[in-house]
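Priority: low. Protein: non-specific serine/threonine protein kinase. Input follows.
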Amino acid sequence: MAECNALRNIRHRNLVSIITACSSIDFQRNDFRALVYEFMPNGSLDKWLHGVDRNMSLGQRVNVAIDLAHALNYLHNECENPIAHCDLKPSNILLDNDMVAHVGDFGLSKFLTQPRHANQSSTIGIKGTVSYAAPEYSLGREASTDGNLYSYGILLLELMTGKSPTNNMFKEDYNLHKYAEAALPDRVLQIVDPSLEEENLTEDPNNRRTIQDELQRRAECITSVINVGVACSNHLPHNRIRITDAISRLQSARDNLLSARKRRNLLIKFKLFECFFTHKLKMCLMICKNNLDKYN
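Result:
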């Protein structure tokens, strides 16, 4: 039970929690083992990216990206022995009631006796989903934290573009990494997930500057996330950025996005207060006028 062993002594808000494990014999007298996880009401990330109702906002996607980065940082740098997940993909990312992301399915995970990098060879093949697996695994390299970074980078690109690395447009040497890299820095909005472009920004002729500011910051945020995704999924393991650097860059992108929204929300509240105050003032003047009319 590799998954039990992997999760027995690790605890993090962005990793799934095992409630219990059981072992028995099924009706055919075969060994039966089961893991019981905490229920995640919002299902898998795969459903939100590729399901019928694709309504995941930019803010939610960036939050998921940061949640996953924190999970990987814990697995790489804060566990007693680093853990390589080896199968990081949207169907293994579960979302709770608050849309917080949790990494699940540790069935293929590997314990590393040290922070192992991708230049060590192994005679044991690495299992996992090919399109998310680091290219060095096909050369017989051992599971590594660098391999986790590659899968994470591909996941980030999928979050922003809405395109799975298994899409039919990707063939032979043309993959999601190259597709995104070719769009940087000026054509990023041409490859963004169309459902992100459909997010409503209420148009107000009096606040066009605020709307334009938010649109600009949205574009900057998307570009930043794609840049991080490309940097993490570099073909050469030693050129991939560290997960701590990814966290820092993603948090800066989110802060930049939120600052525009806060400014816009404050302006909306001010306008509402202004309308409310003006309406109340008009009512007071009307009441005063009516009272004066009674005495005249």
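Strands lie at 18-25, 31-37, 83-84, 93-95, 101-103, 110-111. Residues 121-125 have pLDDT under 50 and may be disordered.
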